[in-house]
Prior knowledge:
Shape: globular
Radius of gyration: 19 Å
Low-confidence stretches: 183-188
Oligomer: single chain
Order of helices and strands: HHEEEEEHHEEEEH
Amino acid sequence: MAAFxxxxxxxxxxxxRSIHDxxxxxxxxxxxxxxxVWDLWINDFILHAEDYSSRPQGVLSVxxxxxxxxxxxxxxxxxxxxxxFIVYHSREAGGGTGEGYSLKREVAFVAEIKPWMExxxxxxxxxxxxxxxxxxxxxxxxxxxxxxxxHAKARVWLVQCVGMFWRVGTLRNDELSPPSxxxxxxxxxxxxxxxxxxxWPIQKLGHVDSDIQxxxxxxxxxxxxx
Length: 226
């Protein structure tokens, strides 16, 4: 299989510059500089795809069933989460923007970004620990559950990114445990998860294996939707 054919003719140069800046000109190890890296990566996917669009810091929301044990007059709660990127697929009906026009938009995949600094080391064991950190996994798992609660999908695609490393996984709509109702900060750890994600191997941007997996991901994800 040939490596992914990048749609930007200057993609590699832009990617190299953004990675260098996020690592070497980011002394506090902030997450935001890595958004540039993954914005380039995502737009390399969707630049040629008319029906796909990317929304940074988009919001997922689902209505939760009232907890009747806590009060005699429970109110329906709404859970909201903000993935770093949401990629949407849109279907249009009718013409123009006037009467008769409608738009159906569903989530194609979400991406969650974490920083990585040169001094942190990139041994396979260290990178694996970063990706499997409990709160990080809980965060992306909740994103997937919320999408499946709102859309009739067999599975949802999730992307984890740590610095210039990435992996993609699928969460199936099969006996989902409920999403955690608290933000996992400090002692407020989420409960043990009963729902596992099928993860692909971790890849590193700029390597041929990463390009090949990028193409495989795009083909399978878009086939699920279209």
